[in-house]
Amino acid sequence: MKDKTRRGGGRNQAKSDVMSTAGGKSAVGLKQEEDSSFAVKIQGAGLESFELQVHGFWLVQDTLMSLLSRNEVCPRSSLSLSFAGTVLDPLAELQTLKGLKPGAIIRLVEEPYTACSARLHLARVLELLRASGPQDALREGRSPSLLDTLTHVQTTDSSLPNGKSLKRSLSNTKTDSTNQDAAPPEYLLPGSTDRPLMALLPPCTQPEAPSYLRDLCLSCWNPPPGHRKLQGDFLYLSVTTMEGRQFEITCCPKGFFLNRSTEDVFDPRPAQSSPVHHCLTDLLCHVSPAFKTTFTTLKNRPQLPPVEVTPTPYHTMSWLGPPCASRTHKNTFSRLGVDEQAARQTPDWNEELQAARDLPQSSVEERLHRDRAMLQVNSGFVRAVMQGAETVVDGFVEPVNGNPEDPAFLWGGLFMSQGAASAMFGGERGRRAAQRLELKGVQAYSNIEGLEELHTLPTAIVDYRGVRLSAQGLAPGLEGSDQSEENSSASRGLLYGINAGPQESAQRRRLLGLLAHAAKCLSLQRHVVVAPSGLRVPLFTSVDAQGMLGGDGRFYILDVFRSFPADVNFCPDVEADCQTVTGEEEKKECCEKEEEEEEEEKKGGCVKEGWPENYHTNSGLPHTFPHGLCRLRPELVQAFIQHKHYQYTQRVRETMEEKGGFEECATAGDSRATDAVRAACKAVGSVSDIIFEMRLNPNVLSPGVTFPPGESSSLDLQKRLLKEAAAFVITHQIPDFVTHCLENYEAPMDGASLKEALHQRGISLRYLGHVMKAISDSEHKESLRHILRSVVGEIFIRSTRRVFNNFLQGVDVPSLCAAISHFLCCLLVPHFTPTTGGEDTKKKSRRRGRGAGPSESLPWSTLTGPELWNLVCQDTVETYNIPGSLVSGPNHLVEHYGLQKISLLREFCLKTGVQLRLRDYILDNQSKAPIGPDDVLNILPIVKHIYTPTSDASKAYRAAQNAIQKGLLDQAHEHLKEAAYLFGRVCDDLHPEACYCNTLLARVAFLQGKTAEARSVQLKSVVISERVLGFDHPNTILQYTLLGVYMYAGGEMVLAQKCFLRARLLMLTVHGEDHPYTATVDSCLGLMLTGDQSGQFLKSSLRLHTSFYGPTDLHTALSQHLMAQWLCSKGEYRSAMSHEKEALAASTILFGENHAQTSCHKEFLSTITKQAVQVERSLRQAGADSAEQTVECLTPTTDSILEQMVLITGIRKITKSDRYQEYKQKHEELKAAVRKELGLKLPSELAALETAKGGEKSSDKETEHGKEAGDGAENNSGQAAAISANGHEVGPADEDDSDRAASDTGGEIVNGESEHKAGAAANGEVESDKKDGELNGAGTATVSPPVLKCKKTWADIVSNASIVNGTRDKDSAVNGVADGVTVNGTADE
């Protein structure tokens, strides 16, 4: 059947719009361009004149940086700008220059070099000549971007260069449904168990970098002698051209020239007829025609989008390296010493970070400059930490202290140490926990808004070769430390802490004010502790924290690793200790109270006050943990406070109802309302008895802390709150997580996504054993098997990593590759035992010159598979309190939990930093080691660091999410474009949140009918996800799936199929086939493919949906319908009727008999039945030949398939909630009653009155931002389709069907996750304010097909019922938009 006209302009529109929208300019950015953007002409420096687009708000140095990045100027440096004969100030704004207007001429002026700028110019030339090769990212351990390789289209036009840009090649692609690629490979078909790794990283289509020179190095006569330095010689270079000629070059302030020196004779005089060139490449072009040709080709090559070539702020590891570990070409420029010269510079990281932090924030432009400066400093700090860890652990740096147990190192402006292992905190495990908690504390204090005067040191932790190092910038020293002893202690710097001593000064008062503000933001209680000297010290932080006034005049807070409250579930020993200093009588009372509580516990079976009934019996908590630094996560503290606030409001309401009614007590003005508030505050544990204020003490139940006698009552309250908070994890957060996974088809796929999902609910990973128990005890255990699989795999890998870290400590450096490969074989091969010899090992030993195989003389070589599994099993029991039979062997994990060995290998490498050679590994071969020493390419540092803010971009992103919840897609689109522009200004789009923002922008644009924009923005999202999160990260899988939909919408069928197949390949590698999202990808592939392969994927999707969700789920019903549709296209109407009946039964149970969704299935079933009867009649009349004919009207069109993909992938959500409609009806009834009581006329009455008078006023006027079309609008007025951001729903706030304790009156989405906030509705109903026709928090958009009125498929009706830009016809709501309301939420006239 001929396809319908493609929406959004098709490929032609995509070709014209693809580059215009790629930049993601926001409304603010576009407005600034219109107001202050103009073109100027650039001349000078030996260049041909060209135009440059500038902005009035740019600084002169911004203009210069933009020029230096142009192909016409690169690699020139040491330049300045002049206008009207005057050299411009670099810090001046262009709009302040008099006479500067469009078309003005700005000249480039060549400035003299200094010794430093000459080396910088040399480094810039080398950066240009070191053109990145196709395998460079893998060699450096960075995650590559594969989108260009996967979507590269071969062309027969020889005029097009091989390295053309991704977007140009995609926009020139001409494909249709009849020109699709061959069948998918067998390893991607449903049911296949092959997991080839070679397909994960296909060969790059970009050519290798050409050779420009044979050699370029420092001359043997360098450095210049003293008398030549006095004459201006900086460097002597030696160059060998491709023609074989050798030249000696002198670098001086004016530039570069040839001298007369040779290998044997030193003669620094300029060669005859050798001019001085300001740029080195100009001189090389002058002496070498071959260099000039290749260099011209290099400068004229097509530029890739910046998001593909700009270095990422932070290193994203690739666990797979290139297939060949050796270099394919020599490093021509390794002997110039540029890298070594840069490494000698020692920056002051603390001063750089604090200087960036102190930048002004009064305007948007200033905040963007500040955020970008902080990101650049922090990313440079993290890169230095990675290099420093490798240098320190490899033994190239000597410790600065004499303590072998806690060595400290100074390198590159960093202070690096392992930290002392304290027995009080649990030895080695406690030391690692303290380093991790210190980083979290620094992040928490850095995130507090309005606290710029309180500073923290730049901090990061790095794991390398089994060693964890803590890295910090150098502290500035104490203020006044070099003064005389007569000065007060305050003037000497240490102002706050348990050891600060009694002091009083203006600086201390100012610091205490900052700490009090921080304590309020972090929900920490002010309290008093007893110092070792016996003094009582008031604290706003943990007992370890210290506040100081640095030598730079800034306030710093240090040692914040115990800033968060203790997790009482894992510190029973501390709980038993009495932490207060009491007299004899109080000691007796304390002991008697404990004895009474123990007796009550024995009699009643419950534990002390604060714990739920039978808590210890049901959960086994509290119990001991390997270290003593178990703290609550800040996310849990906030969730617990919200939970307590809900309890507080409920108690206030209940108390008022008992005393005469809520309204009467609230308006009477007597003490009943006050008494109710006081009683509720006391019941929930508020620190104030007149308002709700929940704060926790970080030092309660912490070892080594002593409290004064007067704090007894406060301590009892704090202990009770900590017990309730700890129990809140088990009783609320873990069940909520399980419920979320049960209802969300984009559940966690690997360890990283599981960790993120748990941490968002405040669940620490030490609760993995309890999460596993909750899933195992659930009645939906079978539907949660994919989550159980991820939990078991995470437990196993984390325990394995701890064993691996200890294992590496006994391995010497020459044996690292052999030891790591041996460890992996013991881990993944059942009953693996080391080989003691053999011909193969002897041959390898002779080749290398030393033994590489296991040897009896090496301790690590004696490790066997059973021994390793016993160690891992012991760690799982100690850490996660689960039975040891969980990890009895690799085959046990595969058989009982469905884990894949290749997925375990991937998780192990990502967590330990091991990089393996790219090849296919056969992990089931027990006769031969599957991983050899040659397969281990590298071990990379794993860095955890703080994240700098992107304040304005994040605010715009959240504003867009709020607009989406209200159904205002036009407003959301503008906010998203603004956020994308701001992200580009701060981090060049290379940020996880920028990826989520672009993903949401693409979805909104697609729903508005802007298919070309959606496609181009989604291209950027895929590249960002691959480079920032990882080429095989779960988010990358989601991005490829969405890109496939938008490619299909643009008519690029081949590329869409490649995207879906790529998503399935990654899904199979990361998790396996048994996951709900695999069903989503399979449905898309089933719709795209033809013949039996389409049926294979559709059957797989139906099987997975049925097993995870059951037969009465919306996803299952849709899969049943797709199967019926496919069977109809084959002419198998009886089977199609069977599947459609199942879909009808599910719809009837979910929606009822009279719902539009049910009517749709009834009509389609009726259509199938009639068609079957017609075919049967044709069969009887014309014979068997006619039975093979497929009726054309039942074959889905391209637009029908697109609509079904949109529903399957969640771009438009299928929901079944009627809570909004119920609320809306009650709201209308209540509003009518109120107006009637007040004597006001309803809008309908006013309209009727005006109509009777002959007026023709419209009651459904169009509002400014898509507000609700009148009070009497039909179903779903003012709503837009529910959209999912980064795989998580961004729908109306009241679509949440889960039975939450607090009412869901609003929702925010942070990093693609839905975060619902408890509202003020005490009875759990949704409340909303309706102002000027706008409904805040628009309701559920039920995506259902309309009633069939002709013999077409359900998808045809969906396609005909709406246009992609959201405009509606007279049919029912399909896109989740009411009759007469566009997808933007604007009412039609």
UniProtKB/TrEMBL annotation:
<dbReference type="InterPro" id="IPR027523">
    <property type="entry name" value="CLU_prot"/>
</dbReference>
<dbReference type="Pfam" id="PF12807">
    <property type="entry name" value="eIF3_p135"/>
</dbReference>
<dbReference type="Pfam" id="PF13236">
    <property type="entry name" value="CLU"/>
</dbReference>
<keyword id="KW-0963">Cytoplasm</keyword>
<protein>
    <submittedName>
        <fullName>Clustered mitochondria protein-like</fullName>
    </submittedName>
</protein>
<feature type="region of interest" description="Disordered">
    <location>
        <begin position="836"/>
        <end position="861"/>
    </location>
</feature>
<feature type="region of interest" description="Disordered">
    <location>
        <begin position="1"/>
        <end position="27"/>
    </location>
</feature>
<feature type="compositionally biased region" description="Polar residues">
    <location>
        <begin position="153"/>
        <end position="181"/>
    </location>
</feature>
<dbReference type="GO" id="GO:0048312">
    <property type="term" value="P:intracellular distribution of mitochondria"/>
</dbReference>
<dbReference type="GO" id="GO:0003729">
    <property type="term" value="F:mRNA binding"/>
</dbReference>
<dbReference type="GO" id="GO:0005737">
    <property type="term" value="C:cytoplasm"/>
</dbReference>
<feature type="domain" description="Clu">
    <location>
        <begin position="327"/>
        <end position="571"/>
    </location>
</feature>
<feature type="region of interest" description="Disordered">
    <location>
        <begin position="1250"/>
        <end position="1344"/>
    </location>
</feature>
<feature type="compositionally biased region" description="Basic and acidic residues">
    <location>
        <begin position="1253"/>
        <end position="1270"/>
    </location>
</feature>
<feature type="region of interest" description="Disordered">
    <location>
        <begin position="153"/>
        <end position="189"/>
    </location>
</feature>
<dbReference type="Pfam" id="PF13374">
    <property type="entry name" value="TPR_10"/>
</dbReference>
<dbReference type="InterPro" id="IPR025697">
    <property type="entry name" value="CLU_dom"/>
</dbReference>
<dbReference type="InterPro" id="IPR033646">
    <property type="entry name" value="CLU-central"/>
</dbReference>
